[in-house]
Amino acid sequence: MSMMTDRTLTCSDCNEAFMFTSSEQEFYAERQFSEPRRCPSCRASRKLSRGGSSESARGSDSYGGTRQMFSATCSTCGREAKVPFQPTGSKPVYCSDCFTPQRSSYR
Ligand SMILES: [Zn+2]
Ligand SMILES: [Zn+2]
Q1: Ligand with smallest separation from the Cα of 74
Q2: What are the boundaries of each domain within the chain?
């Protein structure tokens, strides 16, 4: 029922003209917001800069899921061992056979 029409506003940040559509005007009027002073992109960038929750920073190196395996030489049998960490050389590395805890001697 509204007789609102799209309007063109000028962004106070970048001075670009942007559309303030009739549906947006309704949205703003419903919530008694004053009409936007900035274009959507400037609003988004302002929200990002003061928000602090940067979604873009996350998700680069996901922990869990596929684990990268490094190959090393087993300190016990000398065969190739696959380990889920970067072998430093200072600590002994064991292959899956030798890594198994020797519990059989315990009774
Ligand atoms: Zn702008
Ligand atoms: Zn081994």
Answers
A1: 2
A2: 7-50, 70-99
